């Protein structure tokens, strides 16, 4: 069966796996590597541990799929035993990063910012915990050595004690204004009609110092970010090189950027594009993630498997080849959706979400499942709907659709309403629905071709 392909193929030893950095490049996870790349190659090939970090400002309640791309670089290092630092910008979030923006960010209350800091730190924890469990489930023998360390930091903890005059006196001479003006994120905003505020202009200095602080305090030598962070990352490298005296024992700072997430047609993902999928389970569920990736175009299946999973490239190639032989069956999309959902929401969530999808879209008959099984499955997916007992079909449609009673009757008269696994077409109101309930407590209601409601009758 196709669904077991990954576990069968993971044991293959036909080819020696590429080195970590080369593997990341082959996956399309690396856009640019700041010098010295050769140093990084040598350290990794000699088995040295690398400490690396990636940051996110608390400008929203949740990280989204665009944030996951650079985090996948960290996860690839983490499962190989390297220490990763996940930074939330409790301080820099108050200033605002101009990278990738044409306008200044809106202000945010301190309470909202602190709440976002806490939420994002929890999301960092879940991402690496679920990512490690995913890796263990796919590579049980290799994973026996354990992951690296996950260290979560908030840059407010060191910025709150730094005084402006002291900072300028100690570090101001190491910051070159010419370099700051030359960075694309600054130049593009200065040329725009709205200009650039001093707060956003100095953001790169704050991020540069963050890199220096982690370098000095924890020995972090590699910063990872999206490709729009290239200027900020190189600013940090320049800052460290100017402040830290050279010597034989000096760690060489470096940086890696990941490409910004887009589809094969060039469609971007993220908050500004209005199509972001969030990691907070209170915003988007495991089923939302599954359905998002299940709707992937054929041209994007291979690339998304490389970016959003830890599967060997050989396995991915076999999956894609099998998919392209019968693309109408969407085996590649289902495989991709299950893998990514398992990685982001925990092992097993992909299979559960797949079952939900099969029931909702009529590929598996809900008649083969008990009411309790359906309630449990759809409760976990957070899409179970509940209505009080004793209501007519029209009343229920108005609540779950939702719509007016006249609209509900119109749907009935048009033959758009189907009941139960038999998909019985209903064209008029029904007052007593007992004969259509599963175990006298679950109603399956389909409205049109796409929308299916699983309803618990209380």
From TrEMBL:
EC class name: ligase
GO biological process: tyrosyl-tRNA aminoacylation
Catalysed reactions listed for this entry: tRNA(Tyr) + L-tyrosine + ATP = L-tyrosyl-tRNA(Tyr) + AMP + diphosphate + H(+)
Matching SUPFAM superfamilies: Alpha-L RNA-binding motif (SSF55174), Nucleotidylyl transferase (SSF52374)
PROSITE patterns: AA_TRNA_LIGASE_I (PS00178)
Entry EC number(s): 6.1.1.1
Cellular component terms per the entry's GO annotation: cytosol; mitochondrion
Residue runs in coiled coils: none
Pfam families assigned to the protein according to its UniProt record, in alphabetical order: tRNA-synt_1b (PF00579)
Source domain of life: Eukaryota
Keyword terms, alphabetized: Aminoacyl-tRNA synthetase, ATP-binding, Ligase, Nucleotide-binding, Protein biosynthesis
Listed GO MF terms: ATP binding; RNA binding; tyrosine-tRNA ligase activity
Family: Belongs to the class-I aminoacyl-tRNA synthetase family.
Family matches, as PANTHER family: TYROSINE--TRNA LIGASE, MITOCHONDRIAL, TYROSYL-TRNA SYNTHETASE
Name of this protein: Tyrosine--tRNA ligase
